[in-house]
């Protein structure tokens, strides 16, 4: 493995860690509605669990309400049950062939708890990025040990990996700050 491959691999894996953080933060519910909240809810469809988006059309009615329009009428009850039994704390209402999911307002205490969860997710992402830095640095040390690169090249490469790490950590901090601000706005 060359120095460029090690750097490219570390960069790609750090970007993947940022993407994972972004999806994890999107799952954290704020007071506002967004269709991504229902992404991981599974509905029983002819014996196999599938995401809600595959059995119905998920839309926003307004800032606090999501609507789900099932593709097949008999699926309405199953979709409603799946949303109610999910760990999201939502209470869907059936209105004819459409299911409306109102988003309850968050209490101040719940908002503070959610900011702690957001910080924890951010910290997990930082740990993952630092682990990737350590792995890249160990790979560079192996190259020096095998006499494939000089110690100066190793030092330069480690500095580049550190800059990648610093950039990723700054991005994580920015994402966490934005999500905290989003949660705390009433």
TrEMBL record:
The record's section on CDD domains has:
RRF
Name a Pfam family for this protein.
Answer: RRF
Keywords assigned by UniProt, alphabetized? Coiled coil, Cytoplasm, Protein biosynthesis
Domain Ribosome recycling factor, chain residue ranges per copy? 21-184
Instruction: State whether keyword Protein biosynthesis applies.
Output: yes
Q: Does the keyword Thylakoid apply?
A: no
SUPFAM superfamilies, alphabetized: Ribosome recycling factor, RRF
One GO term of the biological process aspect: cytoplasmic translational termination
In this entry, which stretches build a coiled coil? 122-153
GO MF terms, alphabetically ordered = ribosomal large subunit binding
Task: Pull one GO CC term from this UniProt entry.
Answer: cytosol
The main location class comes to cytoplasm
Cite the InterPro entries for this sequence. Answer: Ribosome_recyc_fac, Ribosome_recyc_fac_dom, RRF_sf
Q: Where in the cell is it found?
A: Cytoplasm
Q: Give the family from UniProt.
A: Belongs to the RRF family.
Q: Which NCBIfam families match?
A: frr (TIGR00496)
Q: What does this protein do?
A: Responsible for the release of ribosomes from messenger RNA at the termination of protein biosynthesis. May increase the efficiency of translation by recycling ribosomes from one round of translation to another.
- Stated name of the protein: Ribosome-recycling factor
Biological source species: Achromobacter agilis
Q: Identify the gene encoding this protein.
A: frr
